[in-house]
Specification:
The structure is a homodimer.
Chain A (H helix, E strand, L loop, with lengths): L5 H6 L2 H22 L1 E2 L1 H5 L1 H10 L6 E4 L6 H6 L37 H14 L6 E6 L6 H13 L4 E6 L10 H10 L4 H9 L2 E8 L3 H14 L4 E7 L7 H4 L7 E2 L7 E2 H15 L3 E5 L9 H6 L4 E3 L4 H13 L3 E7 H4 L3 H9 L6 E5 L16 H5 L6 E3 L4 H11 L6 E4 L3 E2 L13 E4 L5 E5 L2 H16 L5 E4 L2 E3 L3 H6 L4 E9 L4 H9 L5 E7 L9 H8 L3 H14 L1
Parallel strand pairs in A: 2-3, 3-4, 4-6, 5-6, 9-10, 9-11, 11-12, 12-14, 13-14, 17-18, 17-20, 20-21
Antiparallel strand pairs in A: 1-7, 8-15, 13-19, 16-18
Helix pairs in contact in A: 4-10, 6-7, 12-18, 14-16, 19-23
């Protein structure tokens, strides 16, 4: 698609804008079909974004996209149309707003709930500097349940710097939204009762709505009015859009078409295994309950939710609350399983420490999408969890070598009785379900070599095996251990192994991970530790294998290290 | 004070209960005067807690105290009166609710905003198990602004397990509460407008109030009605109490008497220095703004807030929002200083990663109360910050050796242009303000010994110096370096030092801290690293020095290590 100039957009007739919307929608559909990405949310916000670009003056005016997965039309309208075919590809456009990519992206996002705080900060800076422009936060109704949004709403009155909150209400997080906030928004959609409107007034926001966000004829005057009102006060404009708009298969299945991955699923998936195992556990053990923060399907929990609706809780995009809820359920004797993506669990860090681990409660964190996840970029790479979990007292941190071992860990967890985090990627190989003991490593290959490789998790074991085969072809060898627990370390095994050199591999930043823990234990033993993992950097979007190699898990480098150690003897 | 039995409490007349309240208030005042602790909040909730113990049936019924600093009367009424003189002393009663201390403490707290989530979890477990008891969350209006509370409120309708939320409204966090939530509560106090009441209904809560929480004649029937209503639905009972009730000096200065520390201030304080330096910076640099999450006074920012009201933001107990606000202000060219206690910053972990560091924005985190803080116990020991900060890309982590160096760091920070965290304890020595370079260590004592000590921060340098004097008296010596940056490490200095043995000291858990980082850098150098810091445990309340010694910074052990290394040569 060619770039569209600001002048073209400003001068177009409304029918021309509608034609543009059709073209944008087609371009988004075509590109996502090829590159993967967020489909339903972007199809839903085409008209809204076109209207914003028509009414406001970007990049002078600033817009913060909450989560940011709905920014495709914005990218297409801000000089990036000709690059749009590179979406989510290594070196290409990010699927999220990114300051370094364009001056039109004033604030980067990826996780939910930051937009109102960010808009307030931008508006406050504007006022302190005596500048004059408009600041918009575009927030979905799913993110609107997040505590961070509420904290920011509470500040609107305090900070007294005007912003426009565009509440994009499509009735969905990834899963449908529910709960108290949803109740209020539903009532507003049913006819804006005065008391709900006054609620927003109390937060210092003039409420305006409900506007059909897929209809330019309604949107354009509504945004113009909002812009005018912004001279005097902060405004919340309630816009209703339809996820998937224009593509009936997406409109009818917004959860299934929220994200789209064009790659064929050639491998087994950990989330499916999680769902199956939890159902198995729950059938035998009444204490088992499952918790998710608005990601039932992608975590593999749909079946559990259908089978045990009384024991399954989707609390919305409320990662902190989910953790405390889990802790309290465990305090009363239940066995909660809280499944969540690695980067989103960062939101609940304090609750893992303060609620679960300080009280030593048997909550199992199923930490999905761990390691490099690829095309979603910086905010979605699960490369910090080993570091932020491994120093928390009372917590056991497990890293299964394949799906079979993951199944075994889930089966063993209900009677473990202590806080447990199991981290795993999305895809893997099935493997067998073998008995194991918590806190033990597994020797996969034992030789008389001087070198011991400790590899954590499936990706690292694959790399290790590949490197070992190369070594064997070149006449040397090393022992290989499945380092399936970062905490506690298998110190018995570590102490008993005779190898002089220990090489660690982990799908995580090096600082604070497996290598550091092993090296700390082996200090003074005379053994030398060499660690491979990701270097100190945020890892952008790209192909998983390529990024892993580039950022620190390079099979050639690892091989070279082994070779040198072998030569040293 | 003697223990009061449940029967006594149930059979007492209301006048007798009032006399009991006087006695409790006296006991609290006397004990806090001696042991330190939270004064104003406990004086304010005596009647409320007596009424709760009269109307409800603890420990069968369960109560979760949000933050937990207001639990003294509860402890006095639940069989712990005779131990109350041990409050906050090592081995004595905790100043917060603690599961392992009493069956009356069903859920431990310390940080704000967890009570509603916890109450919901307990109530849900009750319903799943088919049990029958009441669950109460006691939440202050300060914590009521926290996002976690909102996330939990949003879940009340979803979870459908009845709880009683007791909203203890005293108009204060530690600082006075403000903002949208405060607005709603104020209106309710001014006459409960229907629309506010309906707001709670939408969240699935029957609103009842306002009740004078310092008046048993109002409280007892209100709690009885609430208990009856709980059969059918969740209830929020809005109670107004007066912080410091009964002690005019405390009523009139609730912020100043929120916490009470009986120890004379014999040393200088980092917070005062922070306030002075930020004022100095702000006078010269219009970009400088200060942010706090409801702790203006204890962070030393009162003067700044008075001098620069337009550039000072107290956003309430909203640690996450404060971080994003800071990131956005920095994105627009401001230089935000976000001052916060080490353990409370845990709440903003994801925002440090996702908003500040992933975007490489010049926010300075002033991480106060770092290291062991003593009498507040597990939830307040700042012993994890080096671990949770040191692996975040783009972040510089500084640990000043004294207040002078802290001042120098603050002065250098405004033009640093990158994310910076400075961690420091409350008390210290003044020292001189000397020039330094970011990312460099400082050699304090250089010898020809084989041993190099790297000590981070004032406490560790004191210990190191003490141990060194002992070594010198015993005929050997070691070099001493002020390891004032954990990230970046001063790799130039580390590479150039000739010593064979490196001993690290840090006021943090060992995992993921300075020792690990130094050891990682020195791997393969032939040098041996020995690390002292806290072992893998939550550290309970007690005296700072005694706890530090007990949990890993034992001068005798460190001396023994040096002696052995010296002997080895």
């Amino acid at each position: 698609m060619r770039n569209i100039s600001r002048a073209e957009l400003k001068n177009a007739s409304v029918p021309q804008l509608k034609t543009l919307c059709d073209a944008l929608r087609e371009e988004i559909f075509r590109t996502v079909s090829e590159c993967g990405g967020h489909l339903a949310s972007n199809l839903g916000t085409v008209e809204l974004t076109v209207a914003l670009h028509r009414v406001f003056d970007f990049p002078r005016d600033k817009i913060v996209f909450d989560v940011g997965h709905q920014c495709y039309t914005h990218k297409l309208l801000s000089g990036r149309a000709e690059l749009f075919h590179t979406l989510r590809k290594e070196g290409g456009l990010s699927g999220f707003p990114k300051r370094e990519e364009s001056e039109y992206d004033c604030y980067g996002t990826g996780h939910a709930g930051t937009a109102v705080s960010a808009a307030l900060g931008i508006a406050k800076a504007r006022d302190l500097k005596g500048e004059d422009f408009n600041v918009i936060a575009l927030v979905g109704d799913g993110a609107f349940q997040n505590g961070l949004i509420f904290e920011a709403m509470n500040s609107v009155r305090l900070l007294r710097s005007n912003i426009l909150i565009l509440l994009n209400d499509n009735g969905m997080s990834i899963s449908p939204t529910q709960g108290g906030t949803h109740e209020i928004l539903s009532e507003l959609k049913d006819g804006a009762p005065e008391d709900d409107v006054r609620l927003f007034e109390r937060f210092g926001l003039r409420y305006s709505g409900v506007v059909n966000g897929n209809d330019l004829d309604e949107l354009l005057p509504a945004l113009e009015n909002a812009r005018a009102a912004l001279r005097h006060e902060s405004v919340i404009l309630h816009v209703v859009t339809k996820k998937g708009q224009g593509y009936p298969f997406s409109e009818n299945a917004p959860a299934e078409t929220h994200g789209f991955d064009p790659r064929p699923v050639t491998r087994a998936e950990y989330p499916s295994a999680l769902g199956e195992e939890l159902i198995g556990l729950a059938e035998k053990d009444e204490r088992v309950v499952a918790i998710t923060a608005a990601m039932t399907d992608s975590l593999g929990l749909r079946g559990f939710f259908e089978k045990f609706p009384q024991r399954a809780f989707d609390v919305g995009i409320c990662e902190e609350h989910a953790s405390v809820l889990a802790a309290a359920l465990a305090a009363e004797g239940m066995r909660p399983y809280y499944a969540i993506y690695s980067t989103f669990l960062q939101r609940a860090f304090d609750e893992i420490v303060h609620d679960v681990c300080a009280q030593n409660l048997p909550v199992t964190f199923c930490v999905d999408r761990a390691g490099i996840t690829g095309a979603d970029g910086e905010t979605h790479q699960g490369i910090f969890d080993l570091s932020y979990l491994s120093f928390i007292p009372n917590l056991t941190v497990a890293i299964p070598k394949d799906i079979g071992e993951f199944r075994a860990m889930i089966r063993a967890s209900a009677d473990y009785g202590k806080p447990l985090a199991i981290r795993y990627p999305r895809m893997g190989t099935e493997g067998s379900v073998a008995p194991f003991e918590m806190g033990t490593f597994e020797v996969l290959h034992s030789t008389t070599s001087d070198i011991l490789i400790l590899a954590a998790g499936e990706r690292c074991l694959e790399i290790a095996e590949k490197v070992l085969r190369r070594a064997q072809r070149n006449g040397f060898d090393a022992s290989l251990v499945n380092a399936r627990f970062l905490k506690p370390l298998d110190t018995k095994l570590l102490s008993s192994r005779p190898e002089k050199y220990v090489v660690t591999l982990e799908d995580n930043v090096l600082a604070g991970g497996l290598g550091d823990a092993v090296a700390r234990f082996l200090r003074g033993s005379g053994k030398e530790v060499y660690s491979f993992g990701y270097r100190d950097a945020f890892i952008p979007h790209g192909e998983i294998c390529s990024l892993a190699c580039k950022y620190g898990l390079d099979p050639d480098e690892i091989y070279a290290c082994l070779k040198e150690l072998h030569a040293r003897g």
